[in-house]
């Protein structure tokens, strides 16, 4: 009996075989003209997503035909996968060797190069280039996408067909031999494929395949995944001579898919056997003389374990193996093989996520959930003794033995353990002896010679301190400070201060310190002021000491605070010989010292101290200046300091000097940022001195226009230069240069940093200037405003959200209630508009305030897509198959076709207003005479082209071409404008003297209406609103 579903699927299979034959002869030609993956995708969707197909399979009369079809289908999938994988294998790896490892990237590159030369008929190699050619990308994608689709098809087929109930005496639709053949296809793909997208896609299908077989009642089918697991473990244990660039590849996914196929309610014997075998293999010793340029079985085993730990479906089943995995990681971190250490680091990261949860995003302001030490060690009892033993060993080796023997001992696993412990949440209120035993080794590690270990040990100490013991631990740590005359260990002193800072921060955060206890800690800190005076002082130690003092500053005595101020100010104002700017940690100390002084000056609101800080900015060394500038930028609590007139005057004097003597670009960029930060809200209200504004403005615009400067420096210079514009004539050359740069940088091809600067500059210098220009009769000034608004419209359609937000801020300040000319509108004084709403608001503002300007119409017409429909369609006809690798547009966010429809009502309004402005009328009439005939001709051509019935392929190509949609939308908008202008002329009884236009407005409107209907039938719906009469005609 004939089955229409099966007939169609056989047709697709025959088409796939033809594509396969083409690929076997010339893969480059096949990738261009007959790509394999499309037919495989069609087969998959028809087989798996159509209910009637499944019903047809179960009909007894048709089952033999379906069984034969499935055999041919799986054999074809096997042949295609073997072909594609073998074409990318190196010459040394036989295509018939099922256990050949995946080729390296170099091997694949050489193989693809040979295929390209074969396809082009070249004998010699082409010149080597850094970038991949289009042919290279085409072949690579053809292979990997096809391999991915094969995996998805076979996996979905097994999942859909094997569980189907069969009548008594009927043979299965997928015989055992066919299923085994499919398993070999999966095995080959995962062992020989390197592309992660293909491996991941194929793994989805393989996971379905294994889950279906393991849950099937047939023991023979259940045995297929088990056999594959056994073979995979045997292959993993055997030596393989592959390069280090082939590490892991799809191998781990083979094991993951098999073990996740076991039912969650079962004991998971396959998972247990797999992990135990991998642990045994990974624990085998690695010789110091082993070749580290090949894959080691031990390393591959750790990579597989990492993949299993990351498997989201294996969480509960892995709990019993956590302790064994942690022991392996800590041992592997000390391996002589860098590859093993690297694999162990990755496995440790996976274990951390599995035990403690996913890392939180810095932008997430929700309360952090986590796990406390009590909960962690309650779930994994043996983990406590393992981690504690590791810490104790590290203390013995690195703290006690090392210094006495004069040696530097590394503990490779120590930092990983501390990082893990530092991520735990704080303990509860009750003391637990099983946790307090961690305190002693962690406190001892404060003397570790490695800086990063001391920092992490301080963070790891906090979770193990009971909340009620914060004060006791603080006093204990502070009591470990040596006296000035005692022998100093800078490492121990630095580590002790770090731990005091960490515990104090946590205690103050939860408000767990009594004022008297806080005063006691402050007194102990006061007694060690010698740390800032001792000749053996270390900048790193001084910096942490100041950070601790900042936490207890309110509990310190006024005399002590004054003494610290004098010491720090003396150091920063005139550095002593022992304080070298190039000394390790000197810049960090400068920043901490400036933070301390600025915090104290702001807290006391002392004019004398603010004046002292201003002098530091004027006379301090570069590190001190950078520290002051950084504090001004980063600390909002210093608003009183920032608004100090004396500081602003000193800054301006220093700013002019910095601009004239450009040195370090980093320092210059920082000065520019602070300048905008300090003066952004006061420049209009309190003008700069005229001479200073002229000199600084010229220097800044020279930086802005210098293409040899970096985009970061140019962007900050642009924002700073904007503040000086109010000191220059409205139509002066500086304003023209500013407009030109905003226009240039608003282009989508400009650097993202420059586009952001253009939006910010428009926001800073645009609204007040535009409001003043509204009432001006200066033609040049109003033309400049139009250019700025046109640039803002482009920025509102930028692909970067921050750029759109900046442009929307400009519009928000522009269209809402204007402030008096002598005041500056505060940044937060208006409601922020969303970018799409801001775009409409800006267009409305343009028509309302500048609608009578003769250049307004041309400016809006310039925003329409500049794509010629006739040329675009001709190009589609002349080119062959559409390339899969067409270059992306510079701005993927903008939608030219939609924007054309948005512009149409505003353009029609301008045409309606032409009767009010003679110059605007002349501008529109000039546009009609120049372009009207071409628009009418193109409308007729477009209607004729889409009316052809014998070019369906071309119609499909045009439907998938974004340029065609943009060109049609722009054409319809222009045609509607032409019809509207013609109608106005007819209403006024003016003869149509436009050359090339012989139709009336009514005839043109009917043509537009019929074209829209035709396009809609072809699949292109352009929702342009015609004038009211035409809209009623369209509804009829």
UniProtKB/TrEMBL annotation:
Domain of life: Eukaryota
GO cellular component: cytosol
Keyword Protease part of the UniProt annotation: no
Alphabetical keyword list: tRNA processing
Coiled coil: none
Gene Ontology biological-process entries: tRNA methylation
Stretches assigned to the tRNA (32-2'-O)-methyltransferase regulator THADA-like C-terminal TPR repeats region domain: 341-502
Pfam families in the record: DUF2428, TPR_Trm732_C
Domain DUF2428: 70-339
Family statement: Belongs to the THADA family.
The protein's role, per its UniProt record: Together with methyltransferase FTSJ1, methylates the 2'-O-ribose of nucleotides at position 32 of the anticodon loop of substrate tRNAs.
PANTHER family: DUF2428 DOMAIN-CONTAINING PROTEIN (PTHR14387:SF0), THADA/DEATH RECEPTOR INTERACTING PROTEIN (PTHR14387)
UniProt-recorded name of the protein: Thyroid adenoma-associated protein homolog
Annotated organism of origin: Notechis scutatus (mainland tiger snake)
GN (gene name): LOC113424809
């Amino acid at each position: 009996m004939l089955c229409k579903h099966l007939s169609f699927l056989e047709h697709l299979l025959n088409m796939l075989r033809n594509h396969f034959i083409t690929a076997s002869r010339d893969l480059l030609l096949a990738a261009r003209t007959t790509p394999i993956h499309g037919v495989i995708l069609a087969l998959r969707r028809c087989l798996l997503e159509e209910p009637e197909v499944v019903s047809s399979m179960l009909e007894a009369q048709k089952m033999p035909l379906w069984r034969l079809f499935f055999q041919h289908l799986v054999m074809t999938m096997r042949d295609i996968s073997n072909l594609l994988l073998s074409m990318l294998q190196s010459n040394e790896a036989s295509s018939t060797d099922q256990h050949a490892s995946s080729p390296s990237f170099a091997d694949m590159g050489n193989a693809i190069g040979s295929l390209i030369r074969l396809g082009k008929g070249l004998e010699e190699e082409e010149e080597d280039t850094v970038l991949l050619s289009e042919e290279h990308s085409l072949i690579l994608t053809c292979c990997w996408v096809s391999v991915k689709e094969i995996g998805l098809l076979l996996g979905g087929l097994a999942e859909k067909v094997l569980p189907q109930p069969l009548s008594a005496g009927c043979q299965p639709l997928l015989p055992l031999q066919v299923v085994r053949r499919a398993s070999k296809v999966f095995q080959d793909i995962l062992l020989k494929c390197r592309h992660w997208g293909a491996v991941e896609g194929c793994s989805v299908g393989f996971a379905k395949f294994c889950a279906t077989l393991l849950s099937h009642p047939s023991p023979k089918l259940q045995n297929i995944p088990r056999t594959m697991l056994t073979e995979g473990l045997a292959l993993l244990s055997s030596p393989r001579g592959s390069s280090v660039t082939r590490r892991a590849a799809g191998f781990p996914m083979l094991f993951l898919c098999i073990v996740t196929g076991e039912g969650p309610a079962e004991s998971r014997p396959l998972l247990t056997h797999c992990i135990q075998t991998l642990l045994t293999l990974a624990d085998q010793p690695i010789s110091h003389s082993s070749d580290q340029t090949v894959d080691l079985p031990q390393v591959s085993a750790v990579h597989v374990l990492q993949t299993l730990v990351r498997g989201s479906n294996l969480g509960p089943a892995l709990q019993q193996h956590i302790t064994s995995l942690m022991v392996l990681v800590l041992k592997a971190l000390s391996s002589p093989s860098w590859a093993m250490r690297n694999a162990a680091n990755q496995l440790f990261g996976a274990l951390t996520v599995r035990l403690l949860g996913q890392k939180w995003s810095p932008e997430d302001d929700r309360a952090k959930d986590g796990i406390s030490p009590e909960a962690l060690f309650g779930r994994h009892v043996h983990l406590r003794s393992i981690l504690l033993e590791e810490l104790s060993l590290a203390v013995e080796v690195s703290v006690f033995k090392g210094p006495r023997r004069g040696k530097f001992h590394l503990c490779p696993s120590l930092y990983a353990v501390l990082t893990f412990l530092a991520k735990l949440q704080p303990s509860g209120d009750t003391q637990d002896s099983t946790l307090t035993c961690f305190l002693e080794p962690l406190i001892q590690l404060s003397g570790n010679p490695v800086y990063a270990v001391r920092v992490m040990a301080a963070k790891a100490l906090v979770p193990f301190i009971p909340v009620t013991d914060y004060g006791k631990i603080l006093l204990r740590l502070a009591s470990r400070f040596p006296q000035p005359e005692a022998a100093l260990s800078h490492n121990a002193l630095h580590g002790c201060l770090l731990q005091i800072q960490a515990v104090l921060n946590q205690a103050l955060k939860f408000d767990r310190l009594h004022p008297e206890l806080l005063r006691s800690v402050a007194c102990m800190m006061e007694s060690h002021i010698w740390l800032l005076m001792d000749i053996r002082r270390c900048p790193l130690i001084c910096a942490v000491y100041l950070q601790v003092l900042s936490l207890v500053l309110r509990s310190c005595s006024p005399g002590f605070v004054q003494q610290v101020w004098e010491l720090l100010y003396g150091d920063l104002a005139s550095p002593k010989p022992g304080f070298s700017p190039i000394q390790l940690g000197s810049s960090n100390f400068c920043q901490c010292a400036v933070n301390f002084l600025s915090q104290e000056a702001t807290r006391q609101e002392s004019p004398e101290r603010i004046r002292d800080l201003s002098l530091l900015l004027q006379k301090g060394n570069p590190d001190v200046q950078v520290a002051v500038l950084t504090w001004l930028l980063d600390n909002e609590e210093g608003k009183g300091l920032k608004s100090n007139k004396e500081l602003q005057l000193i800054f301006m004097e220093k700013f002019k000097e910095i601009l004239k003597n450009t040195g370090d670009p980093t320092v210059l960029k920082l000065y520019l940022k602070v300048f905008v930060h300090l003066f952004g809200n006061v420049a209009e209200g309190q003008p700069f001195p005229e001479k200073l504004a002229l000199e600084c403005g010229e220097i800044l615009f020279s930086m802005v226009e210098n293409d040899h400067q970096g985009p970061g420096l140019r962007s900050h210079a642009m924002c700073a230069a904007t503040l000086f514009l109010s000191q220059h004539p409205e139509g002066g050359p500086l304003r023209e240069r500013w407009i030109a740069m905003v226009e240039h940088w608003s282009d989508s091809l400009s650097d993202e940093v420059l586009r952001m600067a253009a939006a910010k500059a428009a926001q800073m210098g645009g609204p007040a200037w535009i409001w003043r220009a509204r009432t001006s009769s200066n033609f040049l000034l109003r033309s400049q405003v139009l250019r700025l608004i046109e640039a803002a419209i482009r920025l509102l359609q930028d692909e970067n959200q921050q750029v759109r937000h900046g442009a929307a801020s400009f519009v928000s300040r522009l269209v809402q209630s204007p402030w008096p000319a002598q005041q500056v509108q505060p940044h937060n004084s208006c409601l922020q508009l969303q970018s799409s709403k801001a775009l409409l608001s800006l267009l409305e503002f343009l028509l309302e305030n500048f609608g009578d300007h003769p250049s307004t119409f041309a400016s809006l017409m310039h925003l329409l897509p500049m794509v010629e429909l006739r040329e675009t369609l001709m190009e589609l006809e002349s080119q062959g198959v559409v390339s899969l690798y067409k270059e992306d547009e510079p701005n993927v966010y903008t939608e030219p076709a939609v924007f054309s429809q948005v512009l149409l009502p505003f353009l029609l309004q301008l045409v309606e207003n032409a009767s009010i402005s003679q110059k605007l009328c002349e501008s529109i009439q000039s546009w009609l005479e120049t372009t009207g005939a071409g628009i009418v001709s193109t409308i007729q051509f477009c209607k004729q082209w889409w009316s052809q019935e014998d070019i369906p392929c071309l119609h499909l190509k045009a439907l998938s071409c974004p340029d065609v949609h943009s060109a049609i939308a722009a054409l319809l908008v222009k045609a509607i404008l032409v019809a509207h202008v013609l109608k106005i002329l007819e209403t006024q009884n003016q003869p149509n003297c436009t050359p090339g236009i012989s139709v009336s407005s009514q005839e043109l409107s009917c043509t537009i209406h019929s074209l829209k209907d035709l396009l809609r039938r072809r699949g292109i719906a352009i929702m342009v609103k015609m004038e009211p009469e035409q809209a009623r005609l369209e509804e009829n």
